[in-house]
Amino acid sequence: MPRVRSRKGVDPVSLVPTGSTLLNLACSNRTTGAFKPGTLNNIIGDSSAGKSLLCLNILAEIAQIPEFKDHILIYDDVERRLFFNIERLFGASLAKRITGPDGPVTESASSTIESFYYNLDNKIKAKERFIWILDSMDALDAETAEKKFQENKEAFQKDKEGKGSYGDGKAKINSENMRRVTQNLRNTDSLLIIVSQTRDNLSPGFAPKTRAGGRALEFYASHIMWLAKIKKIKKMIRGKNRTIGVDVRASISKNSLTGLQTEVDFPLYYGYGLDDISSMIDFLIDEKELPQSANSIIWQNEKYTRKALIHHFEEEGSKELQILCKKVWTDIVDQLFPDRKPRYE
After folding, report:
1. Is residue 82 a contact partner of residue 106, using CB atoms and an 8 Å limit?
2. Structural domains in the chain (count)
3. In Å, how far are 17, 227, 282 from 265, measured between CA atoms?
4. Cβ(98)–Cβ(135) below 8 Å
5. 122 domain-assigned
6. From CA 73, how far away is CA 90, in angstroms rounded?
7. How many Cα atoms sit within 13 Å of 154 on the Cβ side?
């Protein structure tokens, strides 16, 4: 059992939310947010495990919060797969604010590990506040940087404030630059989320999955989150079962806010995004907090079908559901601690 800094989690002010109440709780013991500004975080997942959808959900949540109105929302789409209708799925607020590292999100993206750090350092040197999602580390090349980087490299590297060593190999470059980056993230109250693909680990005696980029990510990340696809979500359409989403399991293997290593499940729909209400209902049913009767779920002494209960919370708001989830989560966390007198006052 890892050491835990606090049973209460952290101050909810300024935490960056994920769009999932359960995922927020898993990261911070708070319903209001998951990641602390000023940190680097790593989301790792299998193919089609919903990494990009989750990241866009995070940006959509931030776009709704006045406290983050001055942050630049950067989606560094290295994989060039942003074909979503941003406004339809994630709202006009995000569609107006989402951008690439150096231009419109559909036109600007880092192409090499060198250009990523160059783009990142330019924002830091300008003292701009940002939420930056790199999707993904695996898609970056570790070769000669793009023309813009080459033209400016000599002047850039002479600047002590932005100095970095751009050698060959992602692991080497990450190792040489991440300490400086994480320090500067704190100075600007910015957040960096790096997305990684899982890889098979061929080393004997270790976990079966790993990711590219070297050990610097493991060392400097405040949260490390592994996403795995549990099963496909299907719907009968015109007589055929068609895939409309995936059930995802998020496993937090490193948590600098609470110290806890936890797992939560939630559904992601391709045409909707993360389904927060459904995940909370399933969590409470699994923890025996929502009684069931035949095909009904009982909420506040009334019977609902699952669909009707979801509709009820969509119309009336899910605050009471979040409060109950927090209560159950806190009870679980409290029981993880030894019933012992603290050693230190």
Report:
1. yes
2. 1
3. 16, 10, 9
4. no
5. yes
6. 13
7. 1
Domain of 224, CATH number, reads 3.40.50.300
Which of these, 120, 115, 122, 141, lies nearest to 132 by C-alpha position?
120
Q: Is the pTM of this model over 0.90?
A: no
If you count them, how many residues does the chain have? 345
C-alpha dihedral sign at 64, 66, 67, 73: positive
Task: Kindly state whether residue 159 falls inside one of the protein's structural domains.
Answer: yes
Q: Are strands 302-304 and 263-269 parallel, antiparallel or unpaired?
A: unpaired
Q: Which domain does 241 fall in, by range?
A: 21-275
Closest CA to 291 of 277, 273, 309, 279: 309
Work out the average pLDDT over 162-187. Answer: 76
Alpha-carbon span 104 to 108, nearest angstrom: 6
pLDDT digits (tens, 9 = 90+) for 187-235: 999 999 999 988 655 444 445 567 766 788 899 999 999 999 999 999 9
Whole-angstrom Cα distance, residue 272 to residue 227?
18
Q: Which residues neighbour 50 within 8 Å (Cβ) at sequence distance 6 or greater?
A: 227, 229, 246, 248, 268, 274
- The position carrying tokens 């990684």 is 196
3-state SS record for 64-121: CCHHHCCCEEEEECCCCCCCCCHHHHHCHHHHHHEEECCECCCCCCCCEHHHHHHHHH
Q: Residue 27 falls within a domain, yes or no?
A: yes
